[in-house]
Design goal:
CATH class of the largest domain: Mainly Beta
GO molecular function, one term: serine-type endopeptidase activity
Pfam family, one: Trypsin
Number of helices: 5
Distance between the termini: 61 Å
Helix content: 10-25%
Largest sheet: 7 strands, antiparallel
GO cellular component, one term: extracellular space
Shape: globular
Strand content: 25-35%
Number of domains: 2
Enzyme class: hydrolase
Protein name: trypsin
């Protein structure tokens, strides 16, 4: 009897030893990787640690260990000067090169599976309803991230698009109404974030950001009215709402087709003209900086003749749409 019990105990110890050496695979780490410190596989007594891709950080909370997310940061500073400049790789890691039906436009990353752009990039002057846009653009819309030179297309990362969500109150069939010029595009596979690809932050809800200027990046027209092959950026002053409304009202006396400004928009640019966002930049972010974080305050929407004196570039005010953005993203997880 004692011998039998000893045998059972030995079997139990051997069984527990077998269990001990069969370890689980480390959970996958988005935007990072697993580094083994001791041992090469998930074997008994192996030691490993998680490392996030720069500039991301590893959360200390266990439930967030496989996220490695951070928004609004970049590894390279851009100059605090007015004027179009070539953006170095990594300066605007949220920038998306959007190619709807052969046109060049912009968008920006706001999450692993979400990018944001201007609605008019997706609908154009087409009478298509927003519900039919996804089907219409399925084979013609392309989006790329991770590089700053259009001619080096092989260095970009192509995004896999899943669905398009245009604001339900965007109605601009005749090209004279840019109110609610905002759209979200969901991706079918998550973006891998690293130093050259990362999201920009959305503005905090219920907080007006008191800033005087912001930055716009894009692959649009240059001052020579030719499309840029490299990512450019410009720093622009934010213009008081009253000043902007008055400038467009004066122009509208002679050009009645000029769109009206709404509370969902804001203006930026120089009274004397010159540096500005332009065709091909539409949908890119107007970002502002608070502390070390960059926030998407606006979306490049519309304007009159890029850099024209006496008028300004107009941007969709992102803070007005936070409820809609959160609703769309939560309903389409």
């Amino acid at each position: 009897m004692k011998y039998f019990m000893k045998g059972q105990i030995l079997q139990l110890i051997f069984f527990l030893f077998i269990l001990a050496i069969v370890c689980e695979e480390p959970k996958p780490l988005r935007n990072g990787h697993v580094q083994f410190i001791k041992g090469s596989n998930n074997e008994y007594l192996s030691v490993f640690k998680y490392r996030c891709n720069e500039p991301f950080y590893t959360s200390s909370e266990i439930q967030k260990v496989n996220l490695c997310q951070m928004c609004g940061h970049h590894r390279l500073p851009f100059g605090r000067i007015y004027g179009g400049k070539i953006a170095r790789l990594g300066s605007f890691p949220w920038q998306v090169l959007l190619l709807p039906s052969g046109h060049k436009a912009g968008a920006f990353i706001i999450g692993e599976k979400w990018i944001m752009t201007a609605a008019h990039n997706l609908i154009f002057d087409s009478p298509l309803s927003p519900e039919n846009v996804t089907k219409h653009l399925y084979f013609s819309l392309q989006a790329y991230v991770g590089h700053n030179k259009v001619k080096e297309k092989e260095k970009f990362v192509a995004l896999n698009l899943s669905s398009i969500h245009i604001h339900p109150h965007y109605k601009n069939i005749d090209g004279s109404n840019f109110d609610n010029d905002i759209a979200l595009i969901k991706l079918s596979t998550p973006i891998t974030f690293h130093a050259n690809v990362s999201p920009v932050c959305l503005p905090p809800e219920g907080v007006e950001m008191e800033v005087r200027s912001g930055w716009v990046s894009g692959f649009g027209l240059t001052e020579f009215h030719v499309e840029s092959d490299v990512l450019l950026y410009v720093q622009l002053p934010i213009v008081a709402d009253g000043t902007c409304r008055n400038s467009f009202a004066k122009k509208r006396e002679k050009e009645s087709w000029i769109p009206h400004l709404t509370d969902n928009m804001f203006c930026a640019g120089f009274k004397e003209g010159g540096n500005d966002s332009c065709k091909g930049d539409s949908g890119s972010a107007f970002v502002v900086k608070k502390g070390d974080v960059h926030w998407a305050m606006g979306i490049v929407s519309w304007g009159l003749d890029c850099g024209r004196a006496g008028v300004y570039g107009v941007y969709t005010r992102v803070s007005r749409y936070l409820d809609w953005i959160n609703k769309v993203m939560s309903e389409n997880e």
